[in-house]
Structures are given as C-alpha cells and as structure tokens.
Amino acid sequence: MTGLEIFTPEVLVLLFSAFLAGSIDAVVGGGGLIQIPALFTLYPQQLPATLFGTNKFSSIFGTSSAALAYLRQVRMPWRTVLPAALAALLFAFLGAMAVSWLPKESLRPVMLVLLLFAAVYTLNKPDFGKQHRPAHSGRLELAYALLLGALIGFYDGFFGPGTGSFLIFLFIRYFGFDFLHASASAKLVNVATNLAALAYFLPKGYWLPAIALLMAVCNVTGAQIGTRLALRFGNHFIRQVFLITVLLLIARFAFDTLRTR
Q: Is CB count within 10 Å lower at the N or C end of the chain?
C-alpha cells in the first residue's frame, strides 16, 4: 500500500480503532476486542494469519509504551513478573505453533465460563484489587509465576482475546496485587507473548507492513493516554474499566460460541 491509498476512509477508521485499542489495552487489556474485528471487517480478503500478525505488530508497540510508562511510576514485583514473562514467551510460541493442529472453537466455551467467573468474582468482592499485598514468596512464588506465564502465554499464542484481562485477574486473585500493580505487570508479560507471536508471524510474511506501522503509531498514542489515566485515577478507575471490558468480552465470546453451533 503506497501513496494516497494510505489515507482512504477505511484506513482512517482502522487507525482510530488502533488508537482506541491502545487506550483500553493500557488500562486493562482487551484492545484486541476492538482492533482485530476492525482488521477483519476492512480486509476480508486477507488471510487470518496476516491480520493477526498485523494486529500483534501494532499492539506490541502500544503495550511496550504502556509498560515503560508504568515502570517509571510503579514499583514492579520483579520476582513474580520476570519468571511469568519468560514462561509466557516460550509458551506463546508453542501456542502459535499449535494453531495448526488444535481446534480453536473448542476454547470459546471454556473462555466464556472463565470470563463469567472473573466478572462475578470481582463484582462480589468490593475490596478485590484495592490493596497491594503480595501473597507468595520464595519457591512458591516462582512456581506460581511460571505456571501463570505458561498458561497465559500458550493461550495468547494460540487464541488471544482477553489475554490482558485474564492476566490482571490472575495477578490479583493468586498473587495479592492491587489493580494498578496487576495492570503494570500484565503489560510486561503481554510484551513477551507478543514477541513470541511475532517471531512466528513475521518470518512467514504474515503482516501488512504499511498498515501495521501506522497502526503502531496510533496504538502508542492511545497507550500513553490510557496509562496516564490509570496512573492518575488508580485502582477504582482500573476496576471499573476492567469490569466493562470483561463484560464486553463475555458478550463477544457468547456471540461467537452461539454462531459457530
């Protein structure tokens, strides 16, 4: 795509969706809920792998930008985050490889149930994610971090929607983080899973370079705004956005599950 073709109304819509996805993703994840449908709607003639690769390329810049912004303001729980990120990096690549021999459709009902559980659990516990009280240390912390990274990494490489939101919920539920620390930690793990996916997609040519680069700029811009909002308004704001995003994900998974039957 060259010249004036870049400035078509379709592309402008896509760039706005990348900006919006970056804003939401920086707070609670779930940017793919906006960006992936936009890509599939505007480029139905492209291979799904090409659209997923384009999405991952633009997303990693926004996620990295948000992660750096959080790093300057939030004291990171590195003993949990680093093992989780390394495990996620490896298992996300394995998940991308598994796409060819596992049916993705079988995951939708499972993810729908898990999202419903996350929403109900969060709603029923008003104090959920308000206090940062790390729950584990030593070998147990390492084991849980590796397990979390492996599960979420494989899921993101294989399927993907809602990865950031799942990460935030798990960091709060099983590690005792508050929403702010969980969101910051989720960005670092998400960078690792995106890197792994790109290591699979880019060498095979599964991306649209011009579109991906423009989307990356918009995604970064949105991520900076989303991160500033999260840092300014804190746990209560992140909790509200988290619940809205999870409910939207539930609606999306329910629709996709019913449509494929």
A: C
